[in-house]
C-alpha cells in the first residue's frame, strides 16, 4: 500500500496485479515485481535490471543469491540496493567487510521526516541509546549481540527466579504448533510483568494438539485459561487425521483461543528483548528448556525446529505488549521532494 499510495500522491498512472504468487506493478514500460524474501523460490524464472529490498540482513544468504542471479536484464542499471538494520556480524557484514558490497550508514535520528515523538518512543523501547539493541537498530552499528544471540538481553542472574502461580490471575498458554512432540508454556501477567511459570514438553513423539488440549485442561483446572497460539493453526492441521484445524481442536475442548496474526519474527523477538531490558519478563527456574533457548538461540538457527518454547512466549508477549503503539508518520507528511515535481 505504501508504494501505491505514493504513486497516487504523485499522480503517476500504473497498472497492478497483486493476486497470486507473482505480484507486480506496471508504470509505462517498466514492470516492478514484488516478492517476499521469505519465499525467494518464487523469484526464479524472471529477469530484472534493478533490485531494491528491505531488511535484507534478516533474510538468508540463499535468498540474496537467488535475487542476484536474476539481475541480468541489460536494459537496467544491473544494481542492487538494500536497506536494513544490521543483524549482528552475519553474512551481510561479511559482504561489506570483504568489499563485495558498499554501505552507507545512517542513524534513525538522521531521518528528517520522523517526528521527534516517534524517535523518542523507539529510544525508550530499546532501553536508551547505549544498549546493544539501540546501537544496532537506531545507530546502524554492527554489534556482537552475544555472537548473534536472538535474546541477547536475557541474563540468567536477572531473569530466572523461583515463581509462584497466582490463582486469581488468568493463565496464558504460549503455543507454537509442532508436528513432532508438543511444547508450550504457562504465563501470567502480574502487574505488567510476564512470568513464565511452567514449561510443558509432551515427550511422546506422536503427541498432537488433542494431547495438548487434554494436558492443559488437566493441569489448569479452575484457572481462567487463555490460549495464544501460532496463528497458522487457524488453517493448519498438524493433527491431520482429524480433518480439523489446530485452533478448532482447542476450541472443541472448550478452550478460549485468542485469535491473532503472527508478528514478523523480528518484531516478536524485539518485543521479548524489550521486556527483558525493562525487567518485565521472568522465568521460573524449573523451565530449563525455555531458559536454554533464551541463552543459546542464534539468528542462524532454523527457529522453527529448535525454539517452540521461546516462540510461544513471543506470541504471548506480542499479544499483550506489542510494539504497535509506535505509529509511523502518515503519507501526507510535508515532503519537500514531492514539491520538486
Task: Put the structure in a nutshell.
The protein has 341 residues and is of the alpha/beta class.
Overall body shape: globular
Order of helices and strands: HEEEEHEHHHHEEEEHEHEHEHHH
Largest beta sheet: strand ordering: 6-12-9-8-7-10-11
Number of domains: 2
How many separate helices? 12
The level of helicity is 25-40%
CATH topology of the largest domain: Nucleotidyltransferase, domain 5
CA radius of gyration: 23 Å
Quaternary state of this entry equals single chain
Query: How many strand elements?
Result: 12
Mean pLDDT: 86
Blueprint of the fold:
Elements: H1 2-9, E1 15-17, E2 23-27, E3 30-34, E4 50-54, H2 61-69, E5 79-83, H3 91-97, H4 116-125, H5 132-137, H6 156-159, E6 160-161, E7 171-175, E8 183-190, E9 193-201, H7 209-219, E10 225-229, H8 246-252, E11 256-257, H9 265-277, E12 281-284, H10 288-296, H11 303-306, H12 308-320
Parallel strand pairs: 4-5, 6-12, 7-10, 9-12, 10-11
Antiparallel strand pairs: 1-2, 2-3, 7-8, 8-9
Helix pairs in contact: 9-12
Tell me what the structure shows.
- The radius of gyration is 23 Å and the shape is globular.
- It is about 30% helix and about 15% strand.
- It has 12 helices and 12 strands.
- The chain has a 7-stranded mixed beta sheet with strand order 6-12-9-8-7-10-11. A 3-stranded antiparallel beta sheet has the order 1-2-3, with no helix packed on it.
- Helix 8 links the parallel strand 10 and strand 11.
- It has about 350 residues and is an alpha/beta fold.
- It folds into 2 domains: about 110 residues, no CATH class; about 160 residues, Nucleotidyltransferase, domain 5, CATH 3.30.420.
- The two termini are about 20 Å apart.
- Helix 9 crosses helix 12.
